[in-house]
Recover the amino acids of this structure.
């Protein structure tokens, strides 16, 4: 995707990881990681199963604290939202999931329904507003999660394998949504296994293997001339452990 130069991005702080490590019961699962993400990029986090992609996203979003080192914003922490592989939705209607998010966000009551309906419309869910969110299909649930994130107008959006359980049409809908967020000036940090998806979306790629950051390159470089044998093997579809 093209990098966005939106006025609001002038103040979007960089995300900095300095010697960040995440351990569990004495075992290092991630790190040490040194990394700086700046600008309005769409960054794809790639790597084999268990490489630490989800952990990195959760650390970056503040859902986990590093066991060692630092994860910080070089400035005022931006508005953030996160979309998970399995959407976390309330046991309420699709519309009520959105109006609830707006209420938590402090949106005045009279504005909640119109805004929620606008978001449902944008994500192709208008006809489903009364349906209980938890009976929606996987693709519909993911679009609802994206609609909820959209309403929060995040400056940074984290997505953890948002399409891994979806069919091609639903994948396309999610990718279009990601592109719309990005076009609106939202920085994207998204994990994916899917090389084709990464080629379609990524400005740059973070390649993780066994909890270590093996490569951080512009997408064009990563896919054509990866710097490491591990990334090369991953791109060729060979088994990378
Ligand atoms: N809360 C946790 N407690 C203990 N171990 C964890 C925890 N979260 C993740 N791990 C372990 O850390 C490693 C990295 O996990 P993570 O989910 O980040 O990998 P991933 O790259 O996202 O994998 P996948 O592609 O399979 O989703 C794995 O070995 C996992 O079992």
């Amino acid at each position: 995707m093209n990098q966005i130069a939106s006025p609001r991005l002038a103040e979007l702080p960089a995300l900095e990881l300095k010697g960040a490590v995440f351990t569990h019961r004495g075992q290092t699962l991630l790190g040490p990681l040194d990394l700086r993400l700046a600008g309005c990029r769409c960054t794809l986090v790639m790597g084999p199963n268990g490489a630490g992609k989800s952990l990195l996203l959760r650390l970056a979003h503040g859902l986990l604290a590093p066991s060692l080192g630092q994860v910080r914003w070089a400035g005022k922490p931006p508005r953030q939202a996160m979309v998970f592989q399995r959407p976390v939705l309330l046991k309420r209607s699709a519309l009520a999931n959105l109006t609830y998010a707006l209420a938590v966000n402090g949106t005045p009551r009279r504005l909640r329904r119109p805004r929620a309906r606008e978001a449902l419309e944008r994500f192709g869910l208008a006809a489903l507003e009364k349906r209980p969110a938890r009976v929606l299909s996987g693709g519909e649930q993911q679009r609802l999660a994206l609609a909820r994130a959209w309403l929060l107008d995040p400056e940074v959006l984290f997505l953890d394998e948002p399409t891994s359980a979806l069919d091609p049409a639903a994948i396309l809908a999610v990718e279009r949504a990601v592109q719309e967020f990005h076009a609106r000036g939202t920085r994207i940090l998204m994990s994916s296994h899917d090389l084709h998806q990464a080629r379609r979306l990524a400005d740059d790629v973070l390649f993780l293997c066994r909890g270590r950051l093996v490569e951080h390159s512009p997408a064009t470089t990563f896919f054509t001339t990866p710097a490491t044998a591990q990334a090369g093997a991953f791109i060729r579809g060979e088994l990378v452990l």
The helical segments are 53-61, 94-104, 109-122, 138-151, 168-183, 195-201, 219-224, 229-235. Residues 7-85+154-235 form a domain with the Rossmann fold fold (CATH 3.40.50.300).
